[in-house]
């Protein structure tokens, strides 16, 4: 009776151990298959076709691979990735675009360092324009006064002509100086006007760019 009971316990223990081993094995196989399924394939071979359509396979990428375009293959010779042939025209275009983007980024950094924001840039623009406007108004007043002086000098000149008298050297000098001053002031006025319009144009582009950068930063 006691021997039969012990034999039953041994059988039960054996069955339990067997079940545990089977479960462990199944769990191991499941985890291994899941890991294998999630593992990214690694390129082992690189294949390109030459101008005659002949496949060339190697374990590394050569200049010929790049020139013709090539396939990256796994250990089972399955295609992982296709790489297009090198195109010098496209590369030059992309290089030019990269350089353009780099220059734009550099200019954007300069704008941010110089102004900080579109609002600050607008304030500086208004300050510069106000100063230019003040100078322009002053020069225009000077020009009006010089033109009045010219009229007065011309009247004196005509009076001497009417009387048949020669024009005094002092009046001639005044007329000459007056004409020179008028020409100089006109050039200054023109320069100030150009500076005013240029400032408006330049700051319009600066403020527009800063607004765009601030808008993109918010996004």
Report on the structure:
Helix content is 76%, strand content 8%. The chain is α+β, with helices and mostly antiparallel strands and 219 residues long. The protein folds into three domains: 1-39; 45-86, no CATH class; 117-218. It has a four-stranded antiparallel beta sheet with strand order 2-1-3-4. Strand 3 (70-73) and strand 4 (79-83) form a beta hairpin. Helix 4 runs antiparallel to helix 5 (169-218). The two termini are 84 Å apart.
Poorly predicted runs of 5 or more residues? 1-11, 30-37
Mean pLDDT across every amino acid position: 84
- Tell me the span between the first and last alpha carbons: 84 Å
DSSP strand count: 4
Question: Measured on Cα atoms, how large is the radius of gyration?
Answer: 45 Å
H/E series, N to C? Answer: HEEHEEHHH
| Helix/strand structural class | alpha+beta
Number of domains: 3
Overall shape: elongated
Give the biggest beta sheet: 4 strands, antiparallel
Spatial strand order of the main sheet: 2-1-3-4
Count, helices: 5
Q: In what range is the share of β-strand residues?
A: 5-15%
SSE order and pairing:
Blueprint: H1 2-38, E1 45-49, E2 55-58, H2 63-68, E3 70-73, E4 79-83, H3 88-115, H4 118-163, H5 169-218
Antiparallel strand pairs: 1-2, 1-3, 3-4
Helix pairs in contact: 4-5
Features:
3 domains, 76% helix, 4-stranded antiparallel β-sheet, 8% strand, alpha+beta
In short:
The chain is built from 5 helices and 4 strands, in the order αββαββααα.
């Amino acid at each position: 009776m006691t021997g039969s009971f012990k034999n039953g316990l041994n059988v039960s223990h054996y069955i339990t151990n067997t079940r545990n081993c089977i479960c462990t094995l199944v769990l191991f196989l499941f985890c291994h298959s899941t890991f294998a399924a999630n593992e990214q394939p690694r390129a082992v071979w690189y294949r390109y076709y030459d101008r005659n359509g002949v496949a060339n396979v190697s374990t590394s990428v050569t200049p010929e691979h790049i020139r013709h375009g090539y396939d990256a293959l796994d250990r089972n010779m399955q295609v992982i990735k296709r790489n297009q042939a090198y195109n010098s025209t496209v590369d030059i275009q992309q290089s030019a675009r990269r350089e353009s983007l780099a220059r734009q980024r550099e200019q954007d950094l300069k704008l941010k360092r110089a102004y900080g924001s579109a609002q600050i840039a607008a304030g500086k623009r208004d300050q510069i324009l106000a100063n230019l406007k003040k100078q322009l108004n002053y020069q225009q007043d000077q020009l009006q006064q010089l033109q009045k002086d010219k009229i007065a000098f011309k009247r004196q000149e005509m009076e001497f002509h009417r009387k048949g008298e020669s024009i005094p050297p002092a009046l001639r000098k005044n007329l000459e100086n007056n004409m020179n001053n008028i020409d100089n002031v006109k050039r200054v006025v023109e320069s100030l006007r150009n500076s005013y319009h240029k400032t408006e144009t330049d700051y319009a582009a600066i403020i527009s760019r800063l607004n765009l950068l601030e808008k993109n930063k918010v996004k």
